[in-house]
Amino acid sequence: MTRSIKKIGVFTSGGDSPGMNAAIRSVVRACVYHKIECVGIYRGYQGMIEGDFKPMDARSVNNIINKGGTILKSARCLEFKTAEGRKQAYDNLRKEGIDAFVVIGGDGSFTGAHIFAQEFNFPVMGIPGTIDNDIYGTTFTLGYDTALNTVVEVIDKIRDTASSHNRLFFIEVMGRDVGHIALNVGVGAGAEEILIPEEDLGLDRLLDSLKRSKASGKSSSIVVVAEGDTTGENVFELKKYVEKHLPIYDVRVSVLGHMQRGGAPSCYDRVLASRMGVSAVEALLKGESDKMVGVQDNKMIFTPISKAIKGHTVIDTELIRVSDILTI
Amino acid sequence: MTRSIKKIGVFTSGGDSPGMNAAIRSVVRACVYHKIECVGIYRGYQGMIEGDFKPMDARSVNNIINKGGTILKSARCLEFKTAEGRKQAYDNLRKEGIDAFVVIGGDGSFTGAHIFAQEFNFPVMGIPGTIDNDIYGTTFTLGYDTALNTVVEVIDKIRDTASSHNRLFFIEVMGRDVGHIALNVGVGAGAEEILIPEEDLGLDRLLDSLKRSKASGKSSSIVVVAEGDTTGENVFELKKYVEKHLPIYDVRVSVLGHMQRGGAPSCYDRVLASRMGVSAVEALLKGESDKMVGVQDNKMIFTPISKAIKGHTVIDTELIRVSDILTI
Amino acid sequence: MTRSIKKIGVFTSGGDSPGMNAAIRSVVRACVYHKIECVGIYRGYQGMIEGDFKPMDARSVNNIINKGGTILKSARCLEFKTAEGRKQAYDNLRKEGIDAFVVIGGDGSFTGAHIFAQEFNFPVMGIPGTIDNDIYGTTFTLGYDTALNTVVEVIDKIRDTASSHNRLFFIEVMGRDVGHIALNVGVGAGAEEILIPEEDLGLDRLLDSLKRSKASGKSSSIVVVAEGDTTGENVFELKKYVEKHLPIYDVRVSVLGHMQRGGAPSCYDRVLASRMGVSAVEALLKGESDKMVGVQDNKMIFTPISKAIKGHTVIDTELIRVSDILTI
Amino acid sequence: MTRSIKKIGVFTSGGDSPGMNAAIRSVVRACVYHKIECVGIYRGYQGMIEGDFKPMDARSVNNIINKGGTILKSARCLEFKTAEGRKQAYDNLRKEGIDAFVVIGGDGSFTGAHIFAQEFNFPVMGIPGTIDNDIYGTTFTLGYDTALNTVVEVIDKIRDTASSHNRLFFIEVMGRDVGHIALNVGVGAGAEEILIPEEDLGLDRLLDSLKRSKASGKSSSIVVVAEGDTTGENVFELKKYVEKHLPIYDVRVSVLGHMQRGGAPSCYDRVLASRMGVSAVEALLKGESDKMVGVQDNKMIFTPISKAIKGHTVIDTELIRVSDILTI
Fold this sequence. Notes:
Chains A, B, C, D: InterPro entries: ATP_PFK, ATP_PFK_prok-type, PFKA_ATP_prok, Phosphofructokinase_CS, Phosphofructokinase_dom, PKF_sf. The structure is a homotetramer. The first copy, chain A, is an alpha/beta fold.
């Protein structure tokens, strides 16, 4: 039988992403709306183990919907991977009277939540927050849309100077395992080539592509490279390789790094976070557990966390084709 | 039998929206890729009637993917509503050797295209370009996502000064017939109330809502109002009404206007435009006609234009509920 | 003899402007650095009269350097114009142990400070915070640079849609008495005409100018109008006049309004605020009073408040000439 | 005797910077206004040697005032350092009927112009265009203000994620020889420490500073490092050093790179470019030569190029002091 839920904990875990604050705000206010209590847990599972809790009311989340980062902080926590750690966390939650929690994070955070939910028959609900868009069960993760905009704006700036000097730039963007960011910003910024982990273009085809681009009369070339791409060892090696084998190019490198994780969330991410927060709370109140809320066809859907963490997102091969056509 | 297509015309029509240039680029390059010719038609149907054509090659659309507005210009054209006007347009297209066209625009532009396609058995394909997101057959129209971001950024700025002075702002955003922009930016900017054409809140409930907002301890209030809302006559009248009946507020008004139509498109709009342009060209080459390309569940879909112009988009009532919860 | 200063009050007053928070932060931390106490006074003179004080330490101003608005709120206060009001304020300051204050605001706020300083021999220092750049004794006021950037970015967006439709826009920007914003954004956005209070262009010359602009082959026209301009009654009347007398134009209007007061401050405004805050505190500690800190030739200067409020800023006539040349 | 000037060449040279296009536009239109011809020279001195010229009229510079980069392209040119190269350039200019030129660039470009002016008694005028602000004879160079804003916006984003994880970031910004960018964005972004070439802080004092910052309760630390700083070998070495000697910190690195050179210019840079372009043309027409236009105390001033290239800009030591105070 479902325990009646009177107090919900909320926290952010793993790498932060824009929209996490908007999701926290939504969880908190949905609790207030449904007349239950809400407690913020600082630094994810670490704070759960340390009992770093703070009651949240509707006003405590004023003016955060448009802020990057997470007011509840985030951390990775090794201790939660141990049974002792989880037991300590559970005891703290019970002591605080917390009946359920909403975790905002990625794959690793969800794995922890799933084990915890099973171990203690504790109601949990996940909200996918990561810029990488690599979580099964949702078309878009929180922060992904914002990161895409951040990156295309930066590439637009780099294009300005690349065009002025007829240069070639290798631009590394986030994506250790998946190429969603690289592929979309590559199309969005009109990149001449896009290198993603899902597809090994090969150095020969890269050179061919760059030769064609030069021959076509373009004044600059941008190659977007996902972190996890294996065509070259990394963007610096790619630069060296091209300089050696295709000396017609003046080559530069840019590694965008952590700026991709920050910034005010886009409207889409704010709305998505707002919807997901309410959905997560209401699902818990309806007795659901161990699920992740996602968006599909612009509607909220739920996926068992066990499926979400086992599933894989797939790259949009049709978009790769579109990219090839447009770089003509 | 389908006439073989060797030359495609492309134009923008009606109110412009961010992403139109990206769509033009995509149509042009998809033509080049498929080894057919592409002709730009200036100022929509007006230019078609006047024969204002320009051949486009791959390089003619360099560096426009990130530009607002439309390099092909746009206009409304009364003459195309007459049989004579359309006949003149048809003659010009045939003289130029144009076998099909892609129209980027909204409802009115599609109506013209549909009549033209029927009248002359001429292959046409539509791409939905409007910030209003009011076209049946696509979850998102080109420019909508960008407009949402433009508006939330502006409201964020207004919130700064509203909070400093504990003020109430009525902010008018675009949307003569539909409240999609208002509802989404309202949620995204954390507006205290949202007034849309689809729902007449009523002045009494508006006052109640504002009283509750003040009582809850908020330091400022933002009410987002769609142009077409009928709660008050307009934002200026709303201001007067509230000043008279709820003098606890210091009220200001802001009408955002045409800035909402401009600006560099968001990554999402650039990618959507890129996909739609290729899809439209390839659909024509496959013998399709009189259809509109749209996006649903992140995939390209096609809807007969006759259905697109008769159908209606519906406001997301679930999002209205989310908004009510979050303004607590 | 100078009283030794152990506790300084700081507040913002009048219309808010970006950079005020950065200035508050600077005043607070300069006090901490010099080992004196700092007290925030809410809502300007109103809070002084009501005793709405809050001790500030170095951490209380964390993460505000990049926030628009003012965490200390702002207000206009009629009561401070009375001797009784000022006496009440003085009593509250003394009770709180406040020996001096820094006021961040504009002309009106400085006038109050000057009278107060004279009346009670109380050390005060002014920091010019207003987007209008209309304060004598400083080349730039806090928030002015940010407002210029906000406005040119918006006009860039409007230009996109104006060009797409070959339209003429009248854009009203802030500046009731002075045309600094209008003139600079007009030049910066490449406006075809600029209407400012300092110069009555006259409706005839406006029409001539617009005719020339059209004849020169420009695809759109932007006329920037300062609020206080007297060429037409306002932008709506200007629209009507041009529609009547120059029907070649499709005319639109945009009133930018309060968004100009908000937003994250530019780097220049943040640095200027940081410098001014330290300078103001150190001047008080050196025994200075009744002065305003300003910037001239990139250096901090001081002007007696009595001179600052009597003086006038003058429009840069050379820049008007540059504008005329560039709109050719 | 001054040769009457009937045709002026204009070009950009060296590293590009935002505002160069605005300066080109200003030079071109000032020529049109004064009824003389203007010729664009592509790729700086390289295009001069190759005769890569293009006549410019008022409309050829439409819609570029807000674009980063340079429509005339830029390049470095070794050949111009030889007498033969310069002779070839001179012959080309005379053949084209060009009587004088305006060079928009930095130190190196000015050195070439100065030699050329002396060698051929050819009228030249310089406009300082570089983001580094390292040119003697002007308080601000074109592009510097824009770069400052670009960088603080990026650091604001990095701060979001740094705060969420309590991390320390070393952020490398441009400035091989001078620390103007680093110092100003450091103050503007509230950096905990700023490392510039003009001052060797020393690794010990860096550690002390970081320890103090941690102890003060700050949730994140940002250290801005100019490229040319010598405290550590580079940001990667600084990271390693701190990780080794101050393991309380989780350290990350970000190298901002070329994005700093691009982007739409700020209003200030657009206005400055507009003023400088007109001033440069009018100075040539008055018979001036071998000078650089600059801005001082918000007024146009002229400095002999020979002095500009020998002089040094000095870091604002008062601002270093302000920075030290504010990081308390």
